[in-house]
């Protein structure tokens, strides 16, 4: 239970802070492409900028809700890996530029490795499954409210 609470705090911390960066990229996508993608010489800088923005927004929503936590964290991990590469390639090993990126990278890596814990939509869905791994409509309707009460209690 304590581990799941810690993962919930990690998920909400990363998600609520990182989603802002995704929306900030969308606000001026050309500026982001000019400042961060084009200097690396990557092809299709506008497309890659949109991918970065939507991976931060979508990944943040996935990890905050706990629906596909590992997938959302993997998207964030990829974006942060490229951001760390950019920071080192353009500015050298500057700890002040790297510290926030590494914190996001480490949090995303922890979520990829550990999952989201019990306080997730994925966990509620898994509680609705029968022991055989199949879900029936009746089984789902009966078990989801009980699963919610089990997580709360």
How many alpha or pi helices? 7
State the separation between the terminal residues, measured CA to CA: 11 Å
Averaging pLDDT over every residue, what do you get? 88
General form: elongated
The residue fraction in helices comes out at over 70%
Number-wise, the strands total 0
Biggest sheet details? none
Tell me the strand percentage band. under 5%
Our Rg estimate from Cα atoms comes to 19 Å
SSE string, helices as H and strands as E: HHHHHHH
Which structural class should the secondary elements be placed in?
mainly alpha
Low-pLDDT ranges: none
Sequence-ordered SSE layout with sheet pairings:
Blueprint lengths: L1 H26 L1 H9 L7 H21 L3 H23 L3 H20 L6 H8 L8 H16 L1
Helix pairs in contact: 1-3, 1-5, 2-3, 3-4, 4-5, 6-7
Descriptive labels:
153 residues; mainly alpha
What does this entry look like structurally?
The protein has helices at about 1-25, 30-35, 45-65, 70-90, 95-115, 120-130, 135-150. The longest helix is centred in the N-terminal third of the chain and has 26 residues, at about 1-25. The termini are close together. It has about 150 residues and is mainly α. Helix 2 (about 30-35) crosses helix 3 and helix 6 (about 120-130) crosses helix 7.
């Amino acid at each position: 239970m304590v581990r799941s609470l810690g993962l919930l705090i990690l998920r909400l911390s990363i998600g609520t802070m990182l989603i802002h960066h995704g929306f900030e990229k969308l606000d001026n996508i050309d500026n982001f492409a000019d400042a961060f993608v084009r200097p690396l010489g990557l092809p299709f800088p506008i497309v890659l900028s949109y991918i970065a923005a939507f991976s931060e927004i979508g990944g943040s929503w996935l990890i905050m809700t706990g629906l596909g936590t590992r997938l959302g964290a993997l998207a964030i991990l990829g974006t942060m890996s490229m951001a760390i590469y950019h920071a080192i390639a353009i500015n050298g090993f500057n700890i002040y530029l790297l510290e926030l990126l590494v914190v996001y990278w480490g949090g995303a890596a922890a979520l990829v490795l550990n999952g989201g814990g019990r306080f997730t939509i994925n966990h509620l869905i898994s509680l609705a499954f029968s022991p055989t791994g199949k879900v029936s409509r009746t089984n789902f309707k009966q078990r989801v409210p009980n699963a919610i009460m089990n997580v709360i209690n």
